[in-house]
Amino acid sequence: MSKEYETVIGLEVHVELATKTKIFCGCSTAFGAEPNAHTCPVCTGMPGSLPVLNKQVVEYAMAVGIATNCNITQYCKFDRKNYFYPDNPQNYQISQLYLPICRDGYVEIKGENGTKKVGIHEIHMEEDAGKLIHSEWDDCSMVDYNRSGVPLIEIVSEPDMRSADEVIAYLDKLRLIIQYLGASDCKLNEGSMRADVNLSVREVGAKEFGTRTEMKNLNSFKAIARAIENERERQIDLIESGEAVVQETRRWDDNKEYSYAMRSKEDAQDYRYFPEPDLVPIVISDEWIDEVKSRQPELRDEKMARYEADYKIPAYDADIITSSKKMADIFEQTVELGANPKKVSNYLMGETMRLLKENDMDADEISFSPKNLAALIKLIDAGTINSSVAKEVFEKIFSDDIEPEKYVEENGLKMDNDEDGLRKIIEEVVAANPQSVEDYRNGKEKAIGFLVGQTMKATKGKANPGIINKILKELL
Amino acid sequence: MANVISDETIDYVGILAKLELSDEEKENAKKDMESMLDYIDKLNELDTAGVEPMSHVFPVNNVFREDVVTNDDDRENILKNAPEEQNGMFQVPKTFD
Amino acid sequence: MGILDFTAVELAEKIKSKEVSVREAVDAVLEQIDKTEENYNCYVTVDREGAIKKAEEVQKKIDAGEIDGPLAGVPVAIKDNMCTEGLLTTCSSKILGNFIPTFSSEAVLNLEKAGAVIIGKTNMDEFAMGSTTETSAYGVTRNPRNPEHVPGGSSGGSAAAVAANECFYALGSDTGGSIRQPAGYCGVVGMKPTYSTVSRYGLIAYGSSLDQIGPLSKDVRDCATILEVIASHDPKDSTSVKRDDTDFTSALVEDVKGMKIGIPKDYLGEGLDPEVRDAVLKAAEVLKDKGAIIEEFDLGLVEYAIPAYYTIAAAEASSNLERFDGIKYGYRTEEFTDLHNMYKKTRSEGFGPEVKRRIMLGSFVLSSGYYDAYYLKALRVKALIKKAFDDAFAKYDVILGPVAPTTAPKLGESLSDPIKMYLGDIYTISLNLAGLPGICLPCGEDSNGLPIGLQLIGDCFKEKNIIRAAFTYEQSVK
């Protein structure tokens, strides 16, 4: 390659909002229902049905806009986007084109050269489509409208990103902001967060943008990174061989690691937007904005600062704990229950992270309750169990959210503090290991460890290590 | 004045509107659309500079519902009129995502 | 005097006083239908069994004192673009030829709560697109006053059913004159209330920003009574307005002393049949004699209402009718090669020519590159038209004029030239653009014995002014 190319990337991120009901009707948004069980005349486009806007959708969209430094459009409207497809029951999607609810924001990401601003062009509200299921044996597809009308916001960035790393940093930033706001769980793999990548390349130093393509069907950070690399190469190859990049929508196939154009002559991509006559404008007062602002929960940066100041935990710990809203919630709730912040932090940073990694899980998938972690720390603090038992109990908490008191009781795991009983056992251990006794007496401090271990083994791990040490030192 | 609608335009609008017109219908549609557009062009006699487009007549704003589930499972009714149904879903010709 | 001669309100009184049973009223209507329906074709569906069953239910409720309204037990006909649970609703289109709604429109529910008995669903122009009821997929409706003539449209079936005594009153919908103009052609009373007064939930949309449901009735008292029953604030319709002044019958007062009535000169000019003009001006004289102050004035912009209207209505319709695609309900073509072929064949076979014409026009004016020039321009003109009416209503309580330039044309005369047909809507259309209420009532006949319609227009939310003027006129010429 003779020339140097720069990749220019903008993102369209769709986020499913965490409302209980759909955007324009009182149907549940819960997952897992039978096909079409969560539908009504409105979200299946029955003749005569009319939409009524869910207020919570507006407030979530405002909250995300405020958190991403956007201007809130104080007079905003919905528009119809017209296109025929079976997952779209009215054959128009109610969306926003002319007056989207938020505009001109930005988020800061950590780039190679310090922090960088990624501009947000706009955020608009719209409805999700239904799901198409393809029959394997018949030459047909089937439509389930349970997702039809689930509220979405679409966050459209400026073309400010230059690499897959920046894209991922940006997505991560958005994910955390939105999760902290409680506006969505933002799961890329489950589709509650979806990113379309607009990408073009140009020679380094060029002022004009190249022709861009839009890439769809990116279901993981890895897929996004691969698709970006692949599309960059594809466009550079085209340019180098003197061909033109065609402005088009492409679909990424992550298994085959290539993309193909989604083109059809029946697909004119002329959406004939016009103001939705069935919905009235939304007028957002300064007071309403202030109200949403005042209800805005603490976001990550504020949380990190507070953890350091109030809980006296290191910045490093605070950074890791707040990298997931779920983990931060567990941390705070456990501390709330009276556990020592540093000890809670240690459990999250150490054992929890280890188990997550071993089980190939995401921090958002943590399912144990703060109550049980707090109880475990209490048992340790009270000297009821020793650290090796604690490790075992925590694994059970992590996997099955067991109640530690009950578990310790039922499995007889309480720490053995019976000095007389232990003395007997230790006398036996000492008698059986003359060599170690000899070594210790000759100044090999480490030899005592072996004797402690043997005692532990003899007590099935339940002995109080402090007492063992004390007795051993007496006997030796 | 005198709008001219080409065959391409009629075909294009047919794709947008999902209507398939016979050749005769197309010719009629062209003529209809040409005369309607000529007629609509009359609006250009009016100076509307500075006039806000009025999509809603009344200043009614902020009509919302609360985020409360009000609908039960109504599958049977929803599917009642479906031309073709399969496994509780609407059956459609094969689509490729 | 037979049962059929009663107005709706009179019949309800007779039912209340047990002089007539609900069943007798229903039977009388069904007998009339047996006699005349063959000639007029007012209905797409007559629900005999449902009506008879309902009659018994309603009678019980009336006897038990559970229903005590001014329309209790009175048989009604519903335009076939309003959903009725369990009862075929076709919009007079092949594409909904088998559509049985699973819910009823709010206006129908309001009537049912008041003890109405639905006789059937009336014929209309397909999807309410037309002014003659000739674009129906289920045959033309004939004007009971002269079956050689059209009943008007699009609520032609409703107007004809009232005129032919095939019901006691009917509901229609009005997007550009579709209640008022057929009322005028058939010699009955019809009213479009202020936009947002009657819920649109369950009304199969044509032009969402223009559509309103309203009554067609034998006289002004019935009209006000029906409107009072169907008007409601409906949380299911975002454009529905909460009003505390829907006691429309309180305006049934024979008094127009001091009422300022303006007649737009623009409504009396070229194209207006002289017989219609004379009848309308004579009606104005009657009101003047009753103490109203009558003035002619320049309204302006009248000729721009039609192109603005057709742009907006066609655009909205092209989108509203996208849902008819052969997937969820209604007609699906027999054979197709793939998805898009299925869409195209279903829609091309399912829609009639006038509907296709407007969908094509609407899709075009919204398409890339034309939106600003056509659609936005039309919305700007709409704002100007609204302003012109605001100025007029600063001076007048009521605007008076003809409902249509002529009396009912002969069957088959209108459809050949769409623009000529559209021109017939010139006096009615601007009310829909501006959201205004309008009532049409008979004010005489032409030399062929065809009814002439008088239109009274009120400012937004001022139905009571036009009801009072209409009632006063009606009482004066009784």
Describe this structure in words.
The complex is a heterotrimer of chains A (476), B (97) and C (478). Chain A is of the alpha+beta class. Chain A has three domains: 5-288, no CATH class; 298-410, no CATH class; 419-475, Orthogonal Bundle (Arc Repressor Mutant, subunit A), CATH 1.10.10.410. Chain A is built from 15 helices and 17 strands. In chain A, the strands form four sheets. A nine-stranded mixed β-sheet of chain A has the order 3-7-8-11-1-12-13-14-15. In chain A, strands 6-5-16 form a three-stranded antiparallel β-sheet, with no helix packed on it. In chain A, strands 4-17 form a two-stranded antiparallel sheet. In chain A, helix 6 crosses helix 8 (341-358) and helix 14 packs across helix 15. Chain A is elongated, with a radius of gyration of 29 Å. Chain B has a domain at 7-45: Histone, subunit A (Orthogonal Bundle), CATH 1.10.20. Chain B has a two-stranded antiparallel ribbon. In chain B, strand 2 (85-86) and strand 3 (89-93) form a beta hairpin. Chain C has a domain at 3-251: Alpha-Beta Complex (Amidase signature (AS) enzymes), CATH 3.90.1300. In chain C, 40% of the residues lie in helices and 13% in strands. An eleven-stranded mixed β-sheet of chain C has the order 1-3-2-4-6-5-10-11-9-7-8, with helices on both faces. In chain C, a hairpin with a 5-residue loop joins strand 10 and strand 11 (451-458). In chain C, helix 5 runs parallel beside helix 6, helix 9 (302-320) packs across helix 11 and helix 9 (302-320) packs across helix 12. At the A-B interface, strand 2, helix 1, strand 9, strand 10 and strand 17 of A face helix 1, strand 1, helix 3 and strand 3 of B.
Q: How are the SSEs ordered, and which strands pair?
A:
The complex is a heterotrimer of chains A (476), B (97) and C (478).
Chain A: E1 5-16, E2 53-54, H1 55-67, E3 71-72, E4 75-76, E5 79-82, E6 92-95, E7 102-111, E8 114-127, E9 131-134, E10 140-144, E11 151-157, H2 164-181, E12 193-203, E13 213-216, H3 221-240, E14 249-253, E15 258-261, E16 274-275, E17 282-283, H4 286-295, H5 300-311, H6 315-321, H7 325-336, H8 341-358, H9 370-381, H10 387-400, H11 404-410, H12 419-432, H13 434-441, H14 447-458, H15 465-475
Parallel strand pairs in A: 13-14
Antiparallel strand pairs in A: 1-11, 1-12, 3-7, 4-17, 5-6, 5-16, 7-8, 8-11, 9-10, 12-13, 14-15
Helix pairs in contact in A: 2-3, 6-8, 7-8, 7-9, 9-10, 12-14, 12-15, 13-14, 14-15
Chain B: H1 7-17, H2 23-40, E1 64-65, H3 75-79, E2 85-86, E3 89-93
Antiparallel strand pairs in B: 2-3
Chain C: H1 8-16, H2 22-40, E1 43-46, H3 48-63, E2 75-79, H4 106-113, E3 117-122, H5 156-163, E4 169-174, H6 180-186, E5 189-192, E6 212-217, H7 220-230, E7 260-264, H8 274-289, E8 293-297, H9 302-320, H10 339-350, H11 353-366, H12 371-395, E9 398-402, H13 418-423, H14 429-434, E10 438-445, E11 451-458, H15 463-476
Parallel strand pairs in C: 2-3, 2-4, 7-8, 7-9
Antiparallel strand pairs in C: 1-3, 4-6, 5-6, 5-10, 9-11, 10-11
Helix pairs in contact in C: 2-3, 5-6, 9-11, 9-12
